[in-house]
Design goal:
Layout lengths: L8 H9 L5 H19 L2 E4 L1 H16 L11 E5 L26 H8 L3 E6 L33 H8 L5 E5 L6 H7 L2 E4 L20 E5 L2 H11 L17 H7 L6 E5 L9 H16 L3 E5 L7 H16 L20 H12 L2 H14 L5 H22 L4 E5 L15 H5 L6 H6 L2 E9 L6 E8 L4 H19 L14
Parallel strand pairs: 2-3, 2-4, 7-8, 7-9
Antiparallel strand pairs: 1-3, 4-6, 5-6, 5-10, 9-11, 10-11
Helix pairs in contact: 2-3, 5-6, 7-8, 8-16, 10-12, 10-13
Bound molecules: glutamine.
Length: 500
């Protein structure tokens, strides 16, 4: 394997900026890797090879002219196929948008381009980001590089798998209920859901607007921080964007000290229903942080028990409204337009054929929950629970700096195992959902490998709104401790792995 592609983004940035290697060479290395392994992994829905090489060449030219460039200039990045990128298809993993080429860039895409990063392609996802395994993609599932019979988590399984298979050093995801963190846990990578409003949603195809948040994915905490720094910041094009300075995440990632920091363990997120392996690695990590000087206390967040149920009413309600725009008239698929069918019939035929089963399920649930007779009983009650979850967080953060829990109750499951059982699928998001309901920030990083199936386990750090730097401080410290414990980065185990 080309040695360059196993390097961290920080190392690549350093090599490129000191001109020991060109961005062109690095980009070529990753594109070559994609050609070699993506037939099996299927992390990408679209590879943008020619444009990536062209961008790389332009960045190299800027560099040789001595221009001042960003920290990640020339470094490749993969983009979840829910963000618009002019000239490349944006499908959201749905037949509904197959072949649609957006006329504008998402703010996140534009920021990557402005930072002279090289976008190598668009990654696979559950249809419209609805799912926890990437099996709901209309274009086939992504496979977990640790074990290709297993799922890479979801909905951002493509972005996470691309990192674990060394097809890209960095990736962009979006997290509505865990879609950045849960795939990170399943693949032994790092993923951050920033504070709601920290990264612009402009041009991210909306799933549930009050919950959606773009965020960075990487192989290390520092790499993830570097990308976070480029993605985050005020955007007048997003009415929920926060107009405040971005916390110093890159500096925080390098502190590697947790002395005196108060860490709360959420008692509701670590008991029944969690695999013993996940819990073993979780408690081991907490013990390490305690030895390193953190103060550990147990914290009760009683309403977290109802968060999943509230999410699965609020999210589909917003989905039912957001997905009304796919009406066969404005963009994407149009079926049954034979000159005889009415517009309503064309919509019916198109939406019936274009959406997959999970998307339809959510539109139906959401429409029902919002209907006048049931609004108070369902949507109204769920919003009350949301407030109680926010209050739980506020109370907890008045006594501790960060909260911690496993990222998901189990390691990555087998492909096909839960696809016909929506309830079992939804339970994966037990630990990640409270953060989306409250709008604060959270990170998942690998806590080790399971003793029974050898798959990665994930640990989650949750911080108050706009305290995203605390995630990186604790995450960076824990990562260093774990590298010692495991004798090196976990992903080293995949460097010489072959897939067929
Ligand atoms: N798995 C969750 C769901 O299916 C979260 C999805 C997401 O974060 N986009 O809704």
């Amino acid at each position: 394997m080309n040695e360059l592609i196993t390097k961290t983004a920080a190392e690549l940035a350093q090599l490129i900026s000191t001109r020991q290697v060109s961005s062109y060479e690095v980009t070529q290395g990753f594109l070559q890797r994609i050609t070699e392994v993506d037939e099996v992994i299927h992390a990408f829905l679209h590879v943008d090879g020619d444009r990536a090489l062209d961008t790389a060449q332009k960045v190299d030219a800027k560099r040789s002219r001595g221009e001042q460039l960003s920290a990640l200039a020339g470094v490749p990045v993969a983009l979840k196929d829910a963000f618009t990128y002019v000239g490349a298809p944006t499908t959201c993993g749905s037949k509904m948008l197959e072949g649609w080429i957006p006329p504008y860039n998402s703010t996140i895409t534009q920021r990557l381009l402005d930072a002279d990063m090289v976008i190598v392609g668009k990654t696979n996802l559950d249809e419209f980001a609805m799912g926890s395994s990437t099996e709901n993609s209309a274009f086939g599932p992504t496979h977990n590089p640790w074990d290709t019979d297993r799922v890479p988590g979801g909905s951002g399984g493509g972005s996470a798998a691309a990192l674990a298979a060394f097809e890209a050093p960095l990736a962009v995801g979006s997290d509505t209920g865990g879609s950045i963190r849960q795939p990170a846990a399943a693949t032994g990578t790092v993923g951050v859901k920033p504070t709601y409003g920290a990264c612009s949603r402009y041009g991210l195809v909306a799933m549930a607007s009050s919950l959606d948040q773009p965020g960075p994915c990487g192989r290390t905490v520092v790499d993830t921080a570097l990308l976070h720094q480029i993605m985050a910041g005020y955007d007048p094009l997003d009415s929920t964007s926060i107009n405040q300075e971005v916390p110093g995440v890159v500096e925080a990632a390098q502190v590697k000290d947790v002395t005196g920091l108060k860490i709360g363990i959420v008692s509701q997120l670590a008991g029944d229903g969690y695999s013993p392996d996940v819990l073993t690695r979780f408690h081991e990590s907490i013990d390490m942080l305690a030895t390193a000087g953190a103060e550990i206390t147990e914290v009760s967040c009683p309403h977290f028990d109802a968060a999943l149920a509230a999410y699965y009413l609020i999210m589909p309600s917003e989905v039912s409204s957001n997905l009304a725009r796919f009406d066969a008239m404005r963009y994407g698929l149009r079926l049954g337009d034979n000159g005889e069918n009415s517009a309503e019939q064309v919509m019916k035929i198109t939406r019936g054929a274009g959406f997959g089963a999970e998307v339809k399920r959510r539109i139906i649930v959401g429409t029902y929950a919002l209907s006048s007779g049931y609004y108070d009983a369902y949507y109204g009650s769920a919003q009350k629970v949301r407030t109680l979850v926010i209050e739980d967080f506020t109370r907890a953060f008045s006594t501790v700096d960060v909260l911690m829990s496993p990222t998901s109750p189990t390691t990555a499951f087998k492909l096909g195992e839960r696809v016909d059982d929506p309830m079992a699928m939804y339970l994966n998001d037990l630990c990640t959902i409270p953060t989306n309901l409250a709008g604060n920030a959270a990170m998942s990083l690998p806590s080790g490998l399971s003793d029974t199936d050898g798959m990665p386990t994930g640990i989650q750090i949750m911080a108050p709104p706009m305290k995203d730097d605390l995630l990186y401080q604790v995450g960076g410290c824990l990562e260093a401790l774990l590298v010692d414990r495991w004798g090196g980065p976990l992903l080293d185990a995949l460097v010489s792995k072959e897939w067929s």
